[in-house]
Amino acid sequence: MGAQPEEATPVTFYRPDYHVRTPHMRSPDYVQMSTAAAITLGLIPGAMHRTGCTHCLNLLVTYPEGCRANCAYCGLARHREEARDYADRNFIRVDWPAVRYEEVIERVKSDDDRGQFERMCISMITHPDSDADTRVLLRRWTTELPRIPVSILSNPTTMGRDDLVELRDLGADIFTVALDAVTPQIFDRTRGKGVDSPHKWEKYWQAIEWAAEVFGPEKFGAHLICGMGETEREILEVAQRITDLGGHNHMFAFFPEQGSLMEDWEAAPRDQWRRVQLARFIIDYTGGHVSRMRFDGEGRVTDFGIPQDELAALIESGKPFQTSGCPGKSDEEVSACNRPYGDSSPSDIRSFPFALNRRDVGIIRRQMEGEDIGTL
Fold this sequence. Notes:
By secondary structure, this protein is of the alpha/beta class. 30% of the residues lie in helices and 13% in strands. It has helices at 35-40, 101-110, 130-144, 161-169, 184-191, 201-214, 232-245, 270-285, 308-317, 358-368; strands at 30-33, 56-60, 90-91, 94-95, 98-100, 119-123, 150-153, 174-180, 220-226, 248-253, 294-295, 301-303. The radius of gyration is 20 Å and the shape is globular.
């Protein structure tokens, strides 16, 4: 395994100076999509730092009345309903323009010769119509575009086990749960009654266990956010629990969302995040185990539990530091869902949406040693 050769200095422009107002658009006729997906489909102008496209078409159900949850770190939270029209709010750092679903399907069909998309993901929200509309969107996609597998980013709060069975039978390939917070206390403070929100820790874990039963090994996963007050040991113990059930861990570095209740929090420390990324990869892909890792009194990783030469080779490959998410066609260790700059800016990349070169790996090493440096 080796990093890519050094490349020329690229353009750093990512977010286009473009805005789409969508106050009256409703699923299933309309969906929102990430800025990266909209650029890749040619719906809005723009360029992405060091990557030509996203290989996962991230779609989000949308309603004028918005999400009824109130997660403290989320740009879609209910408390923002007086701030701006719901469908115009930022989410994981970027705008999500709304598009007629018919147009999305037609554009992806016309892209057959390029084959940019290796996966599509339907993200649910907490809304009375979200479950039914997700099924409508899924049924149409698997009927018209069966070549592109579909992931479901679920809303466990409104779902029962039968809903998972129906989604599987309609053709969903992978089922994921955005657990995000990795202890009951942090979950309650950021997603539950602590912020007058309906989500419950026990319900989310129930959905993860259902997913393991209904979808099976390698076909489900959980989103985990690093940097919301947990220790490295706590988040990695949860990652191990997911892996032991047969799933994968999709990691995000906490980055304060403008307008959220946690907008004044600091982003996840770089050294903490790099250690967690590396340990997560070891747990998910190399047969490593959290029980063989060592931690200091503050819960920080001091030993990754594998031989030093193997550890050095993993770091040199750069793979542990790329975006983690649902897989594509070419490499199960590299996510199709690369979410360009969803948890950082291009000047301080936390999750790399592209393969790292030698310079990138050198910066990673320095960050792991505690140097306070960005990636540009």
